[in-house]
Give the backbone structure.
Amino acid sequence: MTFEIEWYGGQVLNASKIALDTASKKVAKMVMEDAKKILKQKAKTTTDKGLLSQFYVDESLFKNGGYLVWCQGPKKWWGKYHASFFELGNVWIHPYGNKSLPKINLPANPFMRPAARKNKHKATKVYQDSLDAWLKAG
């Protein structure tokens, strides 16, 4: 008597990864749009050519994939980087170390973190719907 087992695990994992990647990109775009809205409310001089033009969604290089929302200029970590100072706050010291000039405390004005928190429940629903659709199609 002989038994034969067919294993479709690789196909199942690949198909589910595609469904989750699609959902991840959708969630990242939702977070990006909300971050832009929050930034418009908080920044007094932000324009469509300024910080708002520096947003983009890019595929993550992390082992398990996913997508990241960037606000640092066109994929150049060495380029414009003032978004992180706006998000996290900063202490500005005179560039020549002139200690007689006062330090300027720039307060944090987070826009990315609130956008991510705001979309947490929506993201769970998007992932669940994506997996449900994949299971129904399979």
Remarks:
- The longest strand covers residues 55-59.
- The chain is about 50% helix and 10% strand.
- Residues 25-137 form one domain.
